[in-house]
Specification:
Helices cover 24% and strands 34% of the residues. It is α+β, with helices and mostly antiparallel strands. Bound molecules: biotin (BTN).
Length: 231
């Protein structure tokens, strides 16, 4: 587990994917700023100084699709658990890739596959100011935590959860994830391609899908864009 630090990169995920042959399992790169931070579904991840912006490497993982779609969930619970180790707070896990605090987004996760390897990219609002335009939906911890320590604690937590997952303790992990389920009992609208589904969220199922009650029946979703408390 080595941490290589940069002042500025286009994106830590881009850099790690481009140079992936240089990295070993759990190696980390971080940047103080990113000029083209990327989010999921082609979104931009607005980056600024004071955020934790980093990616770590999972080398030569022989995982099938059912296994590797669980990586974002493992990254989410590891981030949440590491943040609680640094200072306890009311963090929630928002299926599939976000950490929320006080109903607002604190952190986002982007997992990408390259050959048999994975790049896990995480952005967290630690001490950065949240721009006015997104104040309603995003939150920063607003505390001068040691960012390197935050990053290392998260990757150490990830290594622990990931080893548990590989040795067959997924059921315990998903149980813990469910105890932090931000969407639980919320009324949501979920969009997949051009179709909309409306219902009440229940648990995250053992295979990592979201259970949504629609007309008294449970439907399982493996992906989708979510709108909460719509009218
Ligand atoms: C999302 O919420 O859509 C995911 C955001 C992921 C952002 C992080 S910041 C570090 C790493 N480098 C990137 O370009 N993206 C991830």
């Amino acid at each position: 587990m080595k941490l290589k630090k940069f002042k500025e990169l286009d994106s830590t995920n881009n850099y790690m994917k481009k140079h992936f042959k240089e990295f070993e399992n759990y190696d980390i790169i971080s940047a103080e700023n990113q000029t083209s931070g990327r989010g999921r579904r082609g979104n931009t991840w607005f980056s600024s100084k004071g955020m934790a912006l980093f990616s770590f490497f999972l080398k030569d993982q022989n995982l099938n699709i059912e296994q590797y779609t669980k990586i974002p969930i493992i990254a989410g619970i590891s981030t949440l658990s590491a943040l609680n180790k640094i200072e306890k707070n009311n963090y929630k896990y928002k299926w599939t890739n976000d950490i929320f605090l006080n109903e607002k987004k604190l952190s986002g996760i982007l997992v990408e596959k390259i050959e048999n390897n994975f790049v896990v990219g995480i952005g967290i609002n630690i001490y950065n100011k949240i721009p006015k335009e997104v104040e309603d939906i995003a939150i920063s911890l607003n505390k001068d935590y040691d960012i390197d320590k935050v990053i290392l604690t998260i990757v150490e937590e990830f290594a622990k959860y990931y080893e548990k997952f590989l040795s067959g303790s997924w059921e315990n992990i998903i149980e813990e994830v469910n105890s932090y389920n931000f969407l639980k009992d919320k009324k949501i609208k979920l969009k997949i391609l051009d179709k909309y589904y409306e219902g009440i969220v229940k648990n995250i199922s053992l295979d990592g899908r979201l259970e949504v009650e629609i007309n008294k029946k449970i439907k399982l979703f493996s992906a989708g864009e979510i709108e909460i408390n719509y009218r």
